[in-house]
Specification:
This protein is an alpha/beta fold and about 425 residues long. The chain has 12 helices and 15 strands.
């Protein structure tokens, strides 16, 4: 009798030969992972490949739970910022996509329905406290009537299986004369739903201390290493007293790299003071997918260069974001019965140059390079890159990358776009150091 048995192969897929790093179970070491019916069916030091219909060669590679990106924008079409997650998911290891406030009460239902077309990816969303969400580039928080806590609560109740928090963008372009009021409304709506607030910081007003001191345990500060006016550093270059207070009472800090929210200089100072991020996220959107953020594994590679360990970086992109939104199960464990969300990465050693959003460069000697992504037991096939929307400028070099064959796009785009002139430069003020 064949080892596959009378009814064919026992497993749909076996990920073989990799080094498992699973912060959920604590499992570390060389294991094979067998998948059947969308769940992990076995995990053992050696599982014969002839027991499975397909095999993923993970020899010499890192095998981790599917990544959970806490800050993305996937309402496309329909908003200024939104991207289709498909062309990035297969080459990035991200199996759970959390939209960070692209939709408000008026259009959350449309985002929810759109996300129903993304299986086998898992999707969740923060509802924007502004009822119009991010239809435009900015300014959604300038009108009092749009920042309606009651409408946000209704939207949460109508989409209870989808909404994981309330998003509020806080910078002067977004809120104008409204100041801190949108945050107050966001906290009111989140409290009614028993959910966290995600507070975006950028260029004030409002005052950063006022924002931080209003946040509750479990609320999230995103763009925590911004170099703009609401940076978390004081005049001495250390963390502000309000940052220390916020951490002590359980406020969480999320990277949210994006196109304007990450400064190497600020991150270096913060990490040197012991303020490591709770969550590493990409803030993937129309402007950031073309660099210098690119995707979540590229953002994770930057924090390897900043001194975080591989295990810490994996935890900050899997179990930590899942726990931050009260859904620890989204960080599917590599254990029998767990949802089969698996990411396979080579840890490529070399001499790489990565940029922050201010076009400051840092040399990186390790880069996470995706080899395979499995979502819900499905090995994701290559998907061609999506061109930017007509309102998003791009350079000739960025256009060249987008026109590569789908099979060639798995190579990290950060190794293809390596000069400051390869990127569109945004009018950012800073960094402050």
């Amino acid at each position: 009798m064949s080892p596959t048995g009378e009814n064919g192969p026992l497993f749909d897929l076996v990920v073989r030969g990799g080094r498992v790093v699973d912060p959920v179970t604590g499992r570390l070491g060389r294991f094979d992972v067998a998948i059947a019916g969308g769940v992990v069916a076995d995990i053992a030091p050696a599982i014969p490949g002839d027991l499975a219909t397909g095999v993923v060669d993970a020899k010499g590679a890192l095998v981790v739970p599917g990544l959970v990106d806490l800050h993305t924008h996937i309402f496309s079409p329909g908003t200024f910022w939104g991207v289709d997650p498909g062309p990035t998911a297969w080459r990035s290891g991200v199996t759970t996509w959390v939209d960070a406030g692209s939709a408000g009460a008026y259009n959350l239902g449309a985002l929810h329905r759109l996300c129903g077309s993304f299986p086998p990816l898992t999707t969740r969303a923060f509802v924007n406290i502004s009822s119009i969400g991010l239809v435009a580039e900015t300014g959604e928080g300038r009108r009092d009537d749009l920042c309606d806590a009651g409408l946000a609560v209704d939207a949460i109740e109508q989409n209870a299986d989808f909404v994981v928090g309330v998003k509020c963008r806080l910078d002067r372009a977004v809120v104008g004369e409204m100041g801190i009021v949108p945050l107050q409304r966001a906290i009111e709506a989140a409290a009614a739903g028993g959910l966290p607030v995600m507070a975006h910081i950028g260029t004030g007003p409002p005052d950063i201390d006022e924002v931080l001191d209003r946040l509750r345990p479990g609320d999230i500060v995103t763009h925590c290493y911004t170099g703009q006016g609401m940076a978390l550093l004081d005049r001495s270059g250390g963390p502000r007293a309000s940052v220390v207070r916020a951490r002590e009472r359980g406020v969480l800090f999320d990277v949210g790299h994006g196109a304007g929210g990450f400064s190497f200089a600020v991150a270096e100072r913060m990490l040197a003071s012991g303020h490591v991020p709770d969550v590493i996220s990409s803030d993937l959107h129309q402007r950031s997918v073309l660099g210098p953020a690119f995707d979540l594994p590229t953002c994770m590679s930057k924090f390897l260069a900043l001194g975080m360990s591989l295990e810490e970086v994996v935890q900050a992109a899997t179990v930590n974001p899942a726990r931050a939104i009260g859904q620890a199960s989204l960080a599917a464990p590599l254990a029998i019965g767990g949802r089969a969300d698996v990411a396979v990465f080579e840890v490529e050693v070399g001499d790489f140059a990565l940029y922050d959003t201010y076009m400051e460069q840092r040399k990186v000697d390790r880069l996470l390079v995706n080899r395979a992504t499995v979502a819900g037991g499905v090995l994701l096939p290559p998907v061609a890159a999506a061109p930017p929307a007509c309102w998003i400028p791009s350079t000739d070099r960025q256009d060249d990358v987008l026109h590569r064959d789908a099979g060639e796009l798995r190579r990290p785009w950060a190794t293809l776009l390596t000069h400051p002139n390869d990127f569109v430069h945004l009018p950012l003020v800073g960094p402050p150091i």
